[in-house]
Design a protein that fits this description.
- The protein is mostly helical and 329 residues long.
- It folds into 2 domains: 1-160, no CATH class; 162-329, no CATH class.
- It has 11 helices and no strands.
- α1 (2-29) packs antiparallel against α5 and α7 (173-194) runs antiparallel to α11 (298-320).
- 42% of the residues are buried.
């Protein structure tokens, strides 16, 4: 009974976590990350101010940040969904703690998940208070993907997709390499987004008409950079942004080759997982190309983030699910 409860909550948690990742990506890409200049409220209110008196008070408090309703609601919506996810994780932890004497209760995993999501909440606050500092924004994205992955593992651990998981062989070196390659590419993608480098190269497959663009790798990957009082829109030179963008493209080629090799191997072992990996890989590469060709349309760029998360979940399944002791309820 306890395992079934946790599995059901973890299933909802996966959906919520994926929604948090997607809405967070949209909020960032729509330049709504500072839609509310404070945290956890919005201009000092629990919701977005919409009455004339509230707006007047809000803009008096933050004269440098006039109220923009759409951006403010995207930011607050993201916080509400993240808050709901935190409550869900807390519920799982309470259930697991109460059943801690049972051998198969995932108390440690639930506790780790709670620590991660609290740390993620801190990064969400710092994203606002430090005015979109790219190191924090990238860390916030990594935290979101980590939360999603742990929630997915919890779902699998409690018997979710047990038929698929039981058919998976133990991961080999190619599976591990593919997982590392995708994780690094996700981090690179976060660095691209947080430094506003998605359109640093305006064409494809070349970069501004050349395959040897003029890049500033040192500035582009200087994680100790000084960012000033507000990083909205970015402060790097175009050469630095071009370096970030071009390295991300090279990373995409590496992912295509490594994960592509894993696809052929996995299709022979567990067909449904192999095809899921293929679909996620092809879709993700296509969306990345279209980001450049279509000049970063908002929905396409958001989908690129979401499908990246799904690709990671397939690789998490391949690499970690066979090692789990699956609970049968």
């Amino acid at each position: 009974m306890v395992n079934a409860q946790i599995r059901k909550l973890a299933g909802f948690g996966v959906i919520f976590a994926l929604l948090v990742v997607s809405v967070g990506a949209y909020t960032r890409l729509a330049d709504a990350g500072l839609g509310c200049p404070d945290w956890p409220g919005c201009y000092g209110f629990l919701t977005v101010p919409n009455q004339a008196s509230e707006i007047s008070t809000a803009e008096a408090r933050y004269p440098e940040a006039p109220v923009e309703f759409a951006k403010a609601w995207w930011e607050m919506g993201h916080r509400y969904i993240a808050g709901a996810l935190l409550l869900l994780v807390a519920s799982i932890l309470v259930i697991a703690y109460r059943a801690r004497e049972k051998e198969d209760t995932p108390l440690k995993l639930a506790a780790v998940l709670m620590v991660v999501i609290l740390w993620q909440a801190a990064f969400g606050a710092w994203t606002v208070t430090l005015k979109l500092w790219p190191q924090v924004v990238t860390g916030h994205l990594i935290g979101g993907f980590t939360t999603l992955s742990l929630m997915w593992l919890l779902f699998l651990r409690q018997g979710g997709l047990s038929g698929v998981v039981s058919a998976l062989p133990r991961p080999n070196w190619l599976a591990k390499l593919a997982f590392v390659a995708v994780v690094l590419q996700i981090i690179l993608g976060g660095w691209v987004s947080s430094n506003y480098a998605a359109l640093a190269c305006y064409d494809f497959p070349s970069c501004d008409g050349t395959y040897t663009p003029d890049m500033d790798l040192q500035q582009g990957f200087n994680i100790f950079q000084s960012v000033g009082p507000n990083y909205l829109g970015g402060l790097m030179t175009n050469e630095a942004r071009m370096a970030i963008h071009w390295v991300h493209r090279i990373g995409a080629i590496v992912v295509l080759l490594v994960v592509g090799g894993l696809v052929f191997q996995t299709v022979k072992q567990v067909t449904v997982v192999g095809y899921a990996l293929l679909a996620a890989l092809v879709t993700q590469i296509t969306l990345g190309i279209l980001n450049v060709v279509w000049v970063l349309p908002l929905l396409n760029a958001t989908a690129h983030n979401t499908v990246g998360a799904l690709l990671l979940l397939v690789l998490v399944t391949i690499n970690f699910a066979p090692r789990l002791r699956i609970v049968q309820s």
